[in-house]
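User: Design a sequence. Structure:
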């Protein structure tokens, strides 16, 4: 991935260029067609994703929880906990995604505290929202 593609994403916005470049080097770019399952609820979580283009729907027990678009990321909870996916994510449009394997994700968080803080804030937000339901 090119660091320039990552700079404007909320996860990396405003971080020093060397930090963004280090993180970008860990990502692989992929595409998914509309209707493609990006993750399956209950599967082992081994990848972290960032949506670069397109939209996806988040589902739990086949009920819509919300949508995500460019700049949103997912998969962090399962990867961080070495657990299973707690939701299904389906591409609702053609999507361009950046992804990395769990061990790369863990290294990125260890090396870059600012990124780790942003990821943890999103985990906290999602956990709070799921306890409100």
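Assistant: Done.
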């Amino acid at each position: 991935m090119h660091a320039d593609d990552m700079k404007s994403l909320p996860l990396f916005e405003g971080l020093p260029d060397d930090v963004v470049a280090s993180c970008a080097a860990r990502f692989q770019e992929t595409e998914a067609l509309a209707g493609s399952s990006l993750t399956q609820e209950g599967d082992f979580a081994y990848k972290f994703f960032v949506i670069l283009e397109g939209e996806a729907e988040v589902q739990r027990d086949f009920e819509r929880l919300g949508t995500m678009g460019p700049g949103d990321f997912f998969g962090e909870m399962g990867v961080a906990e070495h657990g299973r996916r707690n939701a299904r994510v389906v591409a609702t449009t053609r999507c361009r995604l950046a992804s990395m394997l769990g061990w790369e994700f863990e290294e990125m968080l260890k090396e870059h505290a600012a990124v780790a803080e942003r990821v943890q804030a999103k985990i906290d937000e999602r956990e709070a929202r799921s306890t409100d339901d």
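Residues 28-132 form a domain with the Jelly Rolls fold (CATH 2.60.120.10). The first helix runs from residue 3 to 6.
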